[in-house]
TrEMBL record:
Keywords: DNA-binding, Metal-binding, mRNA processing, mRNA splicing, Nucleus, Repeat, RNA-binding, Zinc, Zinc-finger. Residues 12-40, 148-175 form the C3H1-type domain. A zinc finger (C3H1-type) spans 12-40, 148-175. It comes from the Eukaryota. Coiled coil: none annotated. One of its GO terms (cellular component) is U2AF complex. This is Splicing factor U2af small subunit B. It comes from Protea cynaroides. The lineage of its organism: Eukaryota, Viridiplantae, Streptophyta, Embryophyta, Tracheophyta. SMART domains: RRM, RRM_1, ZnF_C3H1.
Length: 298
């Protein structure tokens, strides 16, 4: 029973939890939805609701004064907002993805989804963002259950064939230029390549390496210390039994994280509550069936 409820959790077959809230982190029914909107206690993804205000929000292609808006100006306005928001969120940790909805429905218009590399970074951003203002409007951030944006995105919108327009129930994610994406997210690639650079010392030619003699080991150690001090990074230590290429120990840092343990406990409580609710429904159905059978037939 538990395996069955876990397999249908967040799907259309789940009669308890809302599948749309599980997929896109928002539901058009809001609090009036007949199914539960279970907010995660911790998640790498944050939802900042209704944050982006596009110039032609009331009527697409027309500004509030009724004048036609140049699409290039709209895209420029969007990319300025994207870059400004990215630089602010980047202070709290490495960003995996930053997605902004182009939908027009009230529960999705201007929604910002930021997915951090670590859950601790998302928690830090949540604590620092709530209570602040952007463009005179309060920031409303919360953890989101969305982790796979491929399931939340409208594929027809990406193919320019969605006939529901801005009122589609799936995400219409607005794109940015390749140059801006390379500028913002390219820093992480350069940082990772720089962190791997100490291993390139093994590729130096034989003539460049110090050989023998007194004090050559000290010279080598000093050079390594200057390397990591200049970059503000420390070399990753390895246990004596850990070799390159071997899978990490199951008792690694991630599994010891109290944040992940709290999330696992929360998920366990959700599944347990679903099981108990399912058992109560079955017991109620059994009682009703018993009385229907026991009643005399006139």
């Amino acid at each position: 029973m538990a395996e069955h409820l876990a397999s249908i959790f967040g799907t259309e077959k789940d009669r308890v939890n809302c599948p749309f809230y599980f997929k896109i982190g928002a539901c058009r029914h809001g609090d009036r939805c007949s199914r539960l909107h279970t907010k995660p206690s911790i998640s790498p993804t944050l939802l900042i609701a209704n944050m982006y205000q596009r110039p032609d929000m009331i009527t697409p292609g027309v500004d509030p004064q009724g004048q036609a808006v140049d699409p290039n100006k709209v895209q420029e306005h969007y990319e300025d907002f994207y870059e400004d928001l990215f630089e602010e969120l980047n202070k709290y940790g490495e960003i995996e993805s930053l997605n902004i909805c182009d939908n027009l429905a009230d529960h999705m218009v201007g929604n910002v989804y930021v997915q951090f590399r670590e859950e601790e970074h998302a928690a830090n951003a949540l604590n620092n963002l709530n209570g602040r203002f952007y463009a005179g409007r309060p920031i409303m951030a919360d953890f989101s259950p969305v982790t796979d944006f491929r399931e939340a995105t409208c594929r027809q919108y990406e193919e320019n064939t969605c006939n529901r327009g801005g009122y589609c129930n799936f995400m219409h994610l607005k794109k940015i230029s390749r140059e801006l994406r390379r500028q913002l997210f390219g820093r992480y690639r350069r940082r990772r390549s720089r962190s791997r650079s100490p291993y390139r010392q093994q590729q130096r030619s034989y003539q460049d390496r110090p050989h023998g003699g007194r004090g050559h080991g000290k010279r080598h150690d000093d050079r390594d210390n200057h390397y990591f001090e200049d970059r503000g990074r420390r070399p990753r230590s390895r246990s004596p039994g850990q070799k390159r290429g071997r899978s990490p120990s199951p008792r690694g840092r991630r599994n010891r994280s109290p944040v992940r343990e709290a999330k696992m406990k929360a998920d366990t409580l959700i599944i347990s509550s679903n099981i108990s609710r399912h058992k109560e429904d079955m017991a109620t159905d059994a009682i009703v069936f018993f009385w229907l059978v026991a009643l005399p037939v006139e």
